[in-house]
Amino acid sequence: MATAAAFGGAALILSGCSSSSPADSDGGGGSLTVLCTVQEDQCQQVMDTFTAEEGITARYVRMSAGEAVARMNASKANPEFDVVYGGGADNHVASAEFGLLEPYVSPNADVIPEEFKDPDGLWTGIYWGMFGFCANTDVLESIGADVPQSWDDLLDPVFAGNIAMAHPATSGTAYQAMWSQVELNDGDQDAALEYFGDLHSNILQYTKSGSGPGQMAGRGEIAVGLIFAHDCIKFINEGFTNLETIYPEEGATFEVGAVSLIKDAAHPDEAKTFIDWALTPVAQEIGVATGNYQAPTNPDAEVTDDMVDRDEVAVLDYDITEAGAARDELTKRFDAEVAPQPKE
């Protein structure tokens, strides 16, 4: 059990598939297909850099984390992908529960801290990030609301129709929000669902993508988006200067974004080379180069001022394995008990 502690192309017929090299060439060094769940610009740069450095053509399909689990499970008998890159480790645990992953302990994993990797090699962390609120200060002023500082603040009727979050069945971001409430309620999943039932009346939309609510907030469509803080910071740096990043005062869980080898992958050797490379400082600094500010797990990778300072936020201790094992049932309950309810 891995417990995370609180801490101070070639014509590939796949929907949405991109390639880092011309479609009629595999670069002469083999190829692989990556299921990528980080931002699109980061996915593309990761594949381009890997291909340039290793001589292996990396193609990818970009999906949100929840969609990625469903897609892998649907193609389990004949896997479409070799590696899954990104998405919270709880999603990788859920994938392992479905029998979708193959253990692989990379020699480069030696430098990764224990709390950022599975001891059996089912997943290895490549970044981590904190959950938070992304608030549009102009919209807050227009509706007469203060900047929300806590989970309870979000329940204020002043926010009716002015909050968005992703659906936890499709988004690992939203599942982090759910699991934060589980932890805040001492493991009581019923209480966590009750919180989201209360929040439901203030939700304008459940998006498919975890970062979508931040974009909605930036455009002024809502007052608050529930997203990872590094995504909010990215949108601020891209011009949405009316946004503010808030870390809830009660605390929130953190995501350990991971990389894993897919069971029965068509290109296992290339996949292992990719995983080895993904754990290097060069690979983990691509986030910064593309304006994505997840903190790296490799202690030798660059850390910038745009990354969360873990000593200044309330971080909830949680068990990644437990969260991953509960994901399927908990998201189904959300879909049945929360999402379809009428708004009061």
Strand pairing plus helix content: what structural class? alpha/beta
Unreliable spans: 1-27
Output the CATH homologous superfamily of the largest domain: Periplasmic binding protein-like II
H/E topology pattern: EEHEHEHEEHEHHEHEHEEHHHEH
Count of distinct structural domains: 2
At the fold tier of CATH, the topology name of the largest domain is: D-Maltodextrin-Binding Protein, domain 2
Q: What gyration radius follows from the Cα positions, in whole Å?
A: 19 Å
> Distance between termini?
42 Å
Number of helices: 12
Tell me the strand percentage band.
Answer: 15-25%
Summarize the main sheet.
12 strands, mixed
- The percent range for helix content is 25-40%
Given the C-alpha coordinates, what overall shape results? globular
**Mean of all residue-level pLDDT scores:** 92
How many strands in all?
A: 12
Q: Can you identify the CATH class of the largest domain?
A: Alpha Beta
Descriptive account of the structure:
GO terms for molecular function: thiamine binding; thiamine pyrophosphate binding. Keywords: Signal. It holds the Pfam family SBP_bac_6. This is ABC transporter substrate-binding protein. InterPro entries: Ferric-bd. By secondary structure, the chain is α/β, with parallel strands linked by helices. It folds into two domains: 173 residues, D-Maltodextrin-Binding Protein, domain 2; 137 residues, D-Maltodextrin-Binding Protein, domain 2 (3-Layer(aba) Sandwich). It is built from twelve helices and twelve strands. Strands 1, 2, 3, 4, 5, 6, 7, 8, 9, 10, 11 and 12 form a twelve-stranded mixed β-sheet that branches. Strand 2, helix 1 and strand 3 form a beta-alpha-beta unit.
